[in-house]
Structure formats: structure tokens, C-alpha cells
Write a structure and sequence with these properties.
alpha+beta; Butyryl-CoA Dehydrogenase, subunit A, domain 2; Butyryl-CoA Dehydrogenase, subunit A, domain 3; 2 domains; 6-stranded mixed beta sheet; 4-stranded mixed beta sheet; globular; binds flavin-adenine dinucleotide
């Protein structure tokens, strides 16, 4: 069965036994804690989308390995159309969830591996691509939720991995055995790894010849011995725990903020059949660059655009509810929000349309780098503007509002109804204000800035990818500036 239902996914989560720590306690089941549950429910909704005929073209693709319909989250792009549908999937899932498609990083990681392992086998005579394809076939046939772990803890940023006082700040090899490898270290900010059946682990950056211990790529099962997850914890986690099942009070009631964890690998054994890079430093940079190409198109140019759509919609409602929707400066600000988000989406579409087979002969299609980086850098800056305008139009209420539940209190409820009734009743105004609070005053600003890499990384890519000499020559030619 290549596509499972959300019920089947939830049943599989109940059977998983990951070591998960959140807010001072270890969990025995992800569904018992309201915060970890919100992450699982987001994944469940993505399984539902794949079952919906309306979204089939976006969410489902034919496996290049078996021809079977499989989740696009596990599909290796084989054409421009695949790339376009991939970015559409990122847009759609964000619009539906208001949080991560927690299978997104894994999808981009497996596309990078499909491309790079093919190249390694041709150049080195290894069997990594065969191994990877076998792993992928199984993942596709079981419709596994796969997350992606790239970001190492990194320690002192001035030092290379082997120079770090504590080697564990970069995931590294401990031992090679006949049947597999043993690894240890930390991968941080891992979206949805707790609720994924497996995580694909890639190196965090390019590596030098003497850094072979850090050149690792593999797939690790969720509840592998020695693997623990320490969840993020913040005011939104506390608020959700406080509300318990009374989730209507929350900004994004079912799916929550964006749940990440630190993955702690304490001598975790990985069998050879799940290892896709081990020591070949030359390919670490290529794996990361190809991952980043895919992820910047999807995360920057589509996922955050889906978020922006939700913010724009809610901001318009806020304006209507206070009666300012026709005021010129309000309309101008909303148009600016649309301009910023659609420009990023245009970059994602361009990135897909200019995508190409890489490397030639591999059959794997990757998006265009320059447009992908433009998508990400544009939205990194644009998102702050978008939430600024949402806060402007939403008014101070976005951060000063009382509890929604207070509207029901026999004593203060009637007062609040009168105080906050405007062009719409207080309930509607407060509900929208709470939703906007989730976006403007939560984790999404910094999340958008850093997700898919800090903006300095995209600026660096611009310097590498842009032919500045060509631009100078064009200008000189037109102005008639003669070289001596
Ligand atoms: C919400 C969210 C979800 C995420 N999900 C995932 C995920 O699922 N999987 C995953 O692998 N990662 C994930 N990440 C991690 C993300 O990719 C990183 O946050 C990002 O790459 C930045 O790395 P960092 O957080 O370690 O920040 P840092 O690298 O510490 O960056 C902080 C600042 O220091 C600068 N800096 C850092 N090092 C140097 C240097 N050597 N030289 C010059 N300047 C430097 C940066 O440019 C930046 O300005 C997620 C992040 C967020 C916020």
C-alpha cells in the first residue's frame, strides 16, 4: 500500500517509542502531550491531503522506482513539472496547516541524495545509489514520514569541526563495524523529527580532506537505541499545555507553532544498508548545496508564501471588523503584503521552471539555484514587513487582548463584549487578534529568517552565482566606455 491514511499514520505513531523530553518531562507517547500532539496532527493532515482527489496532482506522484503512486514527500523530481508541483505542495500544506509540512526537509534531503549518490557511484564505483534506492523503495511502499537533519550544533563558529573542544557539536563517526557505523553528536532545530518514522541525516556543510569523520549521510529510524529528542519549549508550548484539550483558545488551535527538537545521537548504530555517505568529504558540500537548492525554493518561495496568504486573509478580516477596510493606507499596506509574498512565489516558480537534470544522466531534477536563493532571501526580509503590517492593521489588541474564554465569564464577559464590539462582535475580533498574535508575536519571524539557512548564506550564493563581469561588460558597451 503506497499511500497510507491519516488513521494509519496515527496508529503507527502510537506504536513508536521515541525518547522524547519536553518541558521537564520524558514522554511515553507523542499523543499524550498537547504540544507534541499538534506536530503529529499536522503530519496526519498531510496524509489526508494526499487522499483528497482535489489535491492529487500536487500531493501524489508516480515513483520512478516502481511506477506506483507515492507521496510527493517521498518522490524524486524527474521533470520541471515535478519541481513545480513540489513547490505547490509547500504552498498548499502551509495554507492548510499554518505550520510546517514536517516531511518537507526530508523530501529535499532525499532529492539531494538521489542526485549525489548517483554521481558518487559513477565516479567512485560505490554502491550508495543502489542502497539509497532500496531504502527509498521501502519508504515509498510504507508511505513513511521522513524528516531531514542537516543543522549541526556547530559550537564555536570560528572553528572547523575537528577543532571543536567538544566533537559532538558536529555529528561524527565513532566506529565502523562490519555491519554498520556508530555515530554521535547533536543535530539542532529539527522540525518534526519526533513524529517522523525516519530522519535523513546529511552533513551540515562542505568538508575538507581531513574531516572525513563528519562526512556522513544516513537514514535513522525514529526510536533507534541511543537517539533522544529534546523538544523546544517556549511561551507557546506553555500556553498549549495550560489549555489542555481546550485548544480553541489558541492562535493555531490544531497544528500549533513549529515544533522542533535537538536530536541527541549517543552512539547510535546505523546499519550499512542505511548509510549513503561515509567519509567521502568531496561530496559533502555537493549534498548540502543540492539540498539547499531544493529547500530554498520550497521553504522560502512557497511555504512562507502560504503563511503570508493566511496572514493577509486574517489582516483583511481584522480591518473589516474594525471598519477600516476601505481606508487608503490600509489597502496600500495589504497590497504591499501581497507584493512581497507573490514576488517570493514568483521566484519559486521561476526556480522550478529553470530547473534542470543534475547531474546529467541521473534523471534527477533540481531547481535553479539563483532563483531559489532569491525566493528565500526575499521572503526572509519580506516576512518581517508582512507581520509588521499585520500588527499595524490588527492594532494593539493583537498583543493586549484578554483570554478568549473571558468573553464567557458572567461578570467580565458582558463588559468585554461591549469594550471590543466594533463593526463585528467582540468574539470575531478577538479570534482574529489571537490568530495574528500567533504570527506576529510568535516564532515565525525568526523561523522564517533562519529556516533553509541564515540569509548570509543566500547572499554568499549570490556572489558565487552572479556573473558580475558580464553585467559590467554590458554596461560598458552601452555607454561606450572603451578599455585602454
Ligand atoms: C523554525 C526552524 C525550523 C528548522 N528546521 C530545521 C530542520 O528541520 N532541519 C535542519 O537541519 N535544520 C532546521 N533548522 C535550522 C536552520 O537551518 C538553521 O537555523 C540555520 O541554518 C541557521 O543556523 P543556526 O541556527 O545554527 O544559526 P547560526 O549559524 O549560529 O547563525 C547565527 C548568525 O551567525 C552567522 N554565522 C554563523 N556562522 C558563521 C560563520 N562561520 N561565519 C560568519 N557568520 C556566521 C549567521 O550568518 C547568522 O547571522 C530550522 C530552523 C528554524 C528556525
Amino acid at each position: 500500500m503506497a499511500l497510507i491514511t491519516s488513521e494509519e499514520y496515527l496508529a503507527s505513531v502510537r506504536k513508536m517509542k521515541p525518547r522524547v523530553y519536553i518541558g521537564g518531562k520524558w514522554l511515553s507517547n507523542l499523543l499524550e502531550n498537547p504540544v507534541t500532539k499538534s506536530m503529529v496532527m499536522a503530519n496526519a493532515a498531510v496524509y489526508d491531503l494526499a487522499q483528497d482527489q482535489e489535491y492529487r496532482e500536487i500531493m501524489v506522484a508516480a515513483s520512478h522506482l516502481t511506477g506506483e503512486p507515492v507521496s510527493r514527500n517521498l518522490h524524486v523530481a524527474r521533470s520541471i513539472h515535478d519541481l513545480d508541483m513540489r513547490q505547490e505542495m509547500a504552498l498548499l500544506t502551509s495554507q492548510v496547516l499554518g505550520t510546517c509540512n514536517y516531511r518537507c526537509v526530508g523530501c529535499d534531503a532525499l532529492n539531494s541524495l538521489a542526485s549525489t549518490t548517483w554521481e558518487m557511484d559513477r565516479e567512485l564505483g560505490t554502491k550508495y545509489n543502489e542502497r539509497f534506492s532500496n531504502w527509498l523503495k521501502t519508504a515509498q511502499s510504507q508511505d513513511l514520514a521522513v524528516s531531514g537533519a542537516i543543522t549541526d550544533a556547530k559550537g564555536d563558529r570560528k572553528k572547523r569541526p575537528p577543532q571543536q573542544e567538544n566533537r559532538d557539536v558536529y555529528l561524527h563517526l565513532v566506529e565502523k563495524r562490519k555491519d554498520g557505523i556508530v555515530v554521535r553528536g547533536y543535530k539542532v532545530s529539527q522540525s518534526g523529527a519526533i513524529g517522523a518514522h525516519e530522519t535523513i541525516v546529511l552533513p551540515g556543510g562542505g568538508l575538507k580532506d581531513d574531516e572525513a569523520d563528519f562526512a556522513l549521510a544516513f537514514a535513522v529510524q525514529n526510536s533507534s537505541p541511543g537517539l533522544s529528542y529534546i523538544c523546544q519549549y517556549n511561551a507557546y508550548s506553555a500556553e498549549r499545555e495550560m489549555c489542555g484539550n481546550d485548544i480553541d483558545e489558541l492562535g493555531n488551535p490544531v497544528y500549533g507553532q513549529r515544533e522542533t527538537s535537538t536530536m541527541v545521537f549517543d552512539n547510535v548504530f546505523i546499519p550499512w544498508e542505511r548509510v549513503f555517505l561515509c567519509g567521502e568529504t568531496k561530496y559533502a558540500g555537493r549534498i548540502v548545496t543540492r539540498f539547499a537548492k531544493a529547500h530554498r525554493m520550497n521553504c522560502g518561495g512557497a511555504c512562507k508564501v502560504g503563511f503570508a496568504d493566511l496572514i493577509i486573509g486574517a489582516t483583511m478580516l481584522a480591518a473589516e471588523y474594525t471598519g477600516v477596510e476601505k481606508v487608503p493606507h490600509i489597502q496600500e499596506k495589504i497590497i504591499d503584503m501581497v507584493r512581497l509574498s507573490e514576488t517570493s512565489h514568483a521566484c519559486a516558480i521561476a526556480s522550478a521552471m529553470r530547473g534542470r537534470e543534475e547531474p546529467k544522466g541521473s534523471g534527477v531534477f533540481l531547481p535553479d539555484d539563483l532563483f531559489g536563493n532569491a525566493a528565500k532571501l526575499n521572503i526572509a526580509h519580506g516576512f518581517w514587513e508582512i507581520i509588521k503590517n499585520a500588527g499595524d492593521i490588527g492594532g494593539g489588541l493583537v498583543v493586549t487582548m484578554p483570554r478568549l474564554k473571558d468573553l464567557e465569564d458572567p461578570e467580565v464577559g458582558p463588559v468585554l463584549q461591549k469594550a471590543f464590539g466594533a463593526a463585528a462582535p467582540a468574539e470575531k475580533r478577538l479570534k482574529v487578534a489571537k490568530f495574528l498574535q500567533h504570527w506576529t508575536s510568535g516564532l515565525h519571524g525568526v523561523g522564517t529568517w533562519h529556516g533553509a539557512g541564515a540569509p548570509q548564506a543566500q547572499r554568499f550564493m549570490f556572489t558565487v552565482l552572479t556573473d558580475f563581469d558580464k553585467k559590467k561588460k554590458m554596461a560598458k558597451k552601452l555607454m561606450g566606455l572603451k578599455e585602454k
